[in-house]
Design brief:
Elements (H helix, E strand, L loop, with lengths): L1 H26 L5 E7 L8 E8 L2 E6 L2 E6 L3 E6 H8 L6 E2 L9 E2 L7 E9 L1 E9 L3 H11 L18 H5 L10 E2 L2 E4 L3 E2 L6 H18 L4 E4 L11 E11 L13 E14 L4 E14 L7 H14 E2 L5
Parallel strand pairs: 10-17, 11-13, 11-14, 12-14
Antiparallel strand pairs: 1-2, 1-9, 2-3, 3-4, 5-8, 6-7, 8-9, 14-15, 15-16
Length: 320
């Protein structure tokens, strides 16, 4: 009887082991998370609702019949709402601006009761995409992405360096040109900040909107992104460097941005140079920044004005 009882116990143990293994395998593939793609994915409209998951080494966003994949290995940085809280300050969803005009001013990009996932990735040039989702979902997605080969920058480590000579060249750049400069292409560098702790979400929104608005103007035959090596072969390439300088001084009211809705203005120094860093044009662009909950159109006005400045001072060699 003892051998038979031992065999039965062994069978029961194997059965439970099989159930536990099946459960573990099921947990390895989490269910898709409901998410909104605010900006950044090629071929996907802004504010598109869908699902987000990590599968087969890709971050996959599904919107209706549209699938957009980002290879985890191509991701240079992945940032969650919690990451922003730790690096910038404030509470989740409220991003404290360390501006030179004093503390206590808050720049709210999102509603408090949502989470955010922001990725910077290389696909020829530098791209960025921003997603919102239920609270707590972003950290799990980030963990999966990192396990699949995504890189995440050390807290406070810049993902794109800006040439140290830019600050010196800025004072030498003309603010007005006698005539339009002929240029067939422009390369848009990632937006940087020298006075403000710029949240990654805000940085990506500025950059993506800037690229889109310049493309929309059709001033240049080609618009290259930061890091696109194919731009090096263009002889008349113009490079756009943008640096956030801070809020407009002299207006206390303009610097008070509420955590729900509000308006202020932000100044971005735009410097156009040749590929050998020769200054061509410098312009401080003052954009109206408006916040409506989770809407990142806060950066739209700046991008539209910067693109217009490029259109006014540059033209394609074919005259179009």
């Amino acid at each position: 009887m003892a051998p038979r009882r031992t065999a039965v116990l062994a069978a029961v143990a194997l059965l439970f082991a099989g159930i536990e293994t099946s459960t573990g395998n099921a947990q390895e593939t989490p269910a898709p998370v409901k998410a909104v793609q605010l900006i950044g994915l090629t071929g996907v409209k802004e504010n598109a609702k869908g699902t987000l998951k990590v599968e087969n080494g890709n971050l996959q966003f599904v919107h209706g019949k549209t699938n957009a994949d980002i290879t985890a290995a191509s991701i240079q940085d992945v940032v969650t709402g919690d990451d922003t809280q730790r690096s910038v300050g404030g509470t989740v969803g409220v991003m404290s601006m360390a501006a030179p005009y004093g503390g206590g001013r808050f720049l709210s990009l999102f509603r408090k009761k949502i989470d955010t996932l922001t990725v910077q990735y290389r696909d020829g040039g530098l791209h960025g995409a921003i997603f919102t989702m239920p609270v707590g979902a972003a950290n799990a997605l980030k963990t999966e992405l990192v396990s699949e080969g995504a890189h995440t920058a050390t807290m406070g480590e810049p993902t794109t360096a800006i040439p140290s000579s830019n600050e010196q060249n800025a004072t030498q750049s003309p603010e007005h040109l006698p005539g339009k400069i002929k240029a067939s292409a422009i390369q848009v560098e990632m937006v940087q900040s020298d006075e403000i702790k710029l949240p990654t979400e805000f940085q990506i929104a500025l950059y993506e909107n800037l690229v889109h608005q310049i493309e929309k103007q059709r001033t240049f035959q080609h618009v290259y992104r930061d890091g696109d090596r194919t731009a090096a072969s263009v002889p008349d390439l113009v490079v756009l460097h943008s640096t956030v300088r801070g809020f407009k001084a002299g207006s206390e009211r303009a610097r008070q941005v509420t955590t729900v809705a509000g308006a202020t203005s932000i100044t971005v120094h735009c410097q156009f140079t040749s590929t050998d860093a020769k200054p061509l044009l410098a312009r401080d662009v003052n954009g109206k920044v408006r916040f409506f909950g989770g809407n990142l159109k806060a950066t739209y006005d700046f991008a539209k004005k910067a693109a217009h400045a490029a259109h006014e001072n540059f033209s394609s060699p074919d005259g179009k």
